[in-house]
UniProtKB/TrEMBL annotation:
Pfam families: PMP22_Claudin. GO terms for molecular function: structural molecule activity. GO terms for cellular component: bicellular tight junction; plasma membrane. This is Claudin. It comes from the Eukaryota.
Length: 229
């Protein structure tokens, strides 16, 4: 993998992680639904994972932190926990991707750096999946209540901006992790520069040489690779 592609994948992962943090803190997961021809309302409700806000028609806004976590809906309770885990996993992924970067000297061994980079990519993908779960779950609950005739109009909510930010951040982390993961291919554990061809020469085996079974063995290990003729 080239240095530019590695940096691009890491950058996407970092941006996605920042998006997860922003969506977790914003009180915009559920907002007041404007139903009917009259959109004039005395106040607008914003509901987040940690607090709820009321915006008056005069422009004044008042926010209040939730008194009890157990009083929250199940989707918001789960979203809190999952997004905290996603943030921690994303932070570990950032450290791993920087430590395994080709432009850093945290690890002297080339193959070790590659393995750490791939681990960082896998963690970015994991954090992205974790970010999709609470945002999609909350969106499902909001849409279900919106079209439920048993729910009063005053209780209906629409999707807030934080849900869309969380979706976008999760996609960035998935793409960034996917760009970092392919760096494992073409790497031999016998080589310090990540090149199978180089490791083959170091072991005294030339390219294209195969045994009677049609396999090439590197460094006299039991690991064998099918020979592509």
């Amino acid at each position: 993998m080239s240095t530019g592609l590695q940096l691009f994948g890491t950058t996407l992962g970092v941006l996605g992680w920042l998006g997860i943090i922003i969506s977790c803190t914003l009180p915009l997961w559920r907002v007041t639904a404007f139903i009917g021809t009259n959109i004039v309302t005395a106040q607008i409700m914003w509901e987040g994972l940690w607090m709820s806000c009321v915006v008056q028609s005069t422009g004044q806004m008042q926010c209040k932190v939730y008194d009890s976590m157990l009083a929250l809906p199940q989707d918001l309770q789960a979203s809190r926990a999952i997004l905290i885990i996603a943030s921690l996993v994303g932070l570990i992924a950032i450290f791993a991707s920087f430590a395994g970067g080709k432009c850093t000297n945290c690890l002297p061994d080339g193959f070790a750096k590659t393995r750490v980079t791939v681990a960082g990519g896998a963690l970015f993908v994991t954090a992205g999946v974790l970010g999709l779960v609470p945002s999609s779950w909350t969106a499902h609950q909001v849409i279900g209540d919106f079209y439920n005739p048993l729910v009063a109009h005053a209780q209906k909510r629409e999707l807030g901006a934080a849900i869309f930010i969380c979706w976008g951040a999760s996609v960035l982390m998935l793409v960034g992790g996917g760009l970092l993961s392919p760096s494992v291919f073409g790497t031999s554990p016998c080589s310090r520069n990540g090149s199978m061809g180089t490791s083959a020469h170091l072991c005294g085996i030339s390219h294209g040489q195969k045994n009677a079974e049609g396999y090439i063995t590197f460094c006299n290990r039991k690991d064998i690779f099918p020979f592509q003729s």
